[in-house]
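R.M. (postdoc): so does anyone remember the format we settled on? I'll just put the structure tokens first.
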């Protein structure tokens, strides 16, 4: 089952996505997806991974990290499916990053990797845009690189975990204006979801609704105002947004 959050007639509503065009509310109303605004499906803390694919680290001329490189995304950076991402003025290079996101279903503290998947409620898709002009080094992902307003599209929905039997063998793709730009597979993650849950829960409590965005494979390129970007995780969903200029 797919769970989304939308805005219709000024009201924020949780819905079940029966088809990509047909949404059902808890009280049985049926809505057309073309008549609503898609919102980020969750609002917990996003723990994002840097350089979690060796091929992506190599294309940035970095070595692969020896332990998870994790940073937190600002809530103001989040937008929903089919919304606009603002490319800041006077930047040279802004690129997409297609990522599988694991959504936490219950509080997790000191969880071993062998039990970790029991704490995953489901999966969604993230486009973790980065403005590379301000990258210092991979130990310190700069806020100006990773947490700008509107530069973290998320969604369209959360797919229940039981409907994704192997999250570590899913194709990950990005298309820009219909053309394939990026393609990889989650089997190439350096640190798997159980490893990440174990690592994070050693020193903090993961809460229901928190999300772990698991990094991106190689294949980055610049995107410009007017571009329509689709990021896809096989079996989870396709997340679309449009780039607009700051002006």
């Amino acid at each position: 089952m797919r769970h989304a959050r939308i805005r219709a007639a000024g009201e924020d509503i949780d819905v079940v996505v029966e088809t990509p065009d047909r949404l059902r509310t808890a009280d049985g109303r049926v809505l057309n997806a073309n008549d609503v605004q898609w919102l980020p499906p969750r609002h917990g803390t996003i723990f994002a991974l840097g350089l979690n694919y060796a091929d992506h680290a190599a294309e940035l001329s970095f070595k692969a990290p020896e332990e998870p490189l994790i940073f937190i995304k600002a809530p103001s950076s989040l937008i929903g499916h089919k919304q606009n991402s603002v490319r800041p003025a006077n930047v040279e290079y802004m690129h997409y990053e297609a990522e599988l996101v694991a959504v936490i279903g219950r509080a997790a503290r000191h969880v071993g990797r062998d039990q970790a998947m029991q704490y995953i409620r489901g999966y969604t898709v993230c486009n973790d845009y980065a403005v590379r002009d301000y990258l210092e080094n991979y130990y310190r992902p700069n806020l100006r690189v990773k947490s700008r307003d509107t530069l973290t599209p998320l969604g369209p929905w959360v797919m229940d975990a039981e409907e994704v039997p192997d999250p570590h063998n899913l194709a990950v793709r990005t298309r820009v204006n219909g053309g394939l730009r990026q393609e990889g597979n989650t089997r190439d993650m350096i640190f798997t979801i159980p490893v990440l849950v174990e690592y994070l829960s050693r020193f903090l409590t993961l809460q229901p609704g928190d999300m772990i965005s698991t990094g991106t494979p190689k294949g980055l390129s610049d995107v410009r105002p007017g571009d329509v970007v689709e990021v896809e995780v096989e079996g989870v969903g396709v997340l679309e947004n449009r780039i607009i200029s700051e002006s």
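R.M.: ...and that's the designed sequence above, right after the tokens. Also worth knowing: Residues 193-201 form the longest helix (9 residues). The chain has a mean pLDDT of 93.
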